[in-house]
Amino acid sequence: LPQMTINEMIRYVNQLYGYVMHQYQQETRTVLEAAGVDVSSCDIYQQLDKEALPDPFKELETEYAQKQYFREEFGLIEPTERRLGQVIERLQNRLIYKWE
Question: Distance between CA 39 and CA 45 in Å, rounded?
Fold first, then answer.
């Protein structure tokens, strides 16, 4: 995948993550308030803050980190340029090829 596509995917998943966490926070707040808990003084609700939770893509911010992750987790082998079949000499009616 092109780097631009990977960056866009990470951005959209981060947005989705933020939305889900916001919904989770709101539902938790509603349940706690219904149970009579003062949410403003509750440490649990503060722990649910999006900023307090780890960013799932924190370690994948750079192109290098992304490629390293793909190599380790998915066995990525990046393409390399190869010139095929450069004749370097003839030997007894056979062609000898040099492979780079």
Answer: 7
Q: Between 55 and 82, name the one with better pLDDT.
A: 55
Please, what's the b/e burial string for 5-30 (b: 16 or more CB within 10 A of its CB; e: otherwise)? eeeeeeeeeeeeeeeeeeeeeeeeee
The residues, ordered by sequence, that sit 6+ positions from 71 with a Cβ below 8 Å of its Cβ are 77
Predicted confidence at residue 29, as pLDDT, reads: 82
- Which residues are 71's β-sheet partners? none
What pLDDT is attached to residue 81? Answer: 72
Q: Is the pTM of this model over 0.90?
A: no
What is the spatial distance between Cα 67 and Cα 62, in angstroms, rounded to a whole number? 9
The predicted structure's pLDDT at residue 66: 87
First to last CA, the chain: 26
Cβ atoms < 10 Å from Cβ of 68:
14
CA distances from 72 to 1, 6, 68 (A): 17, 17, 6
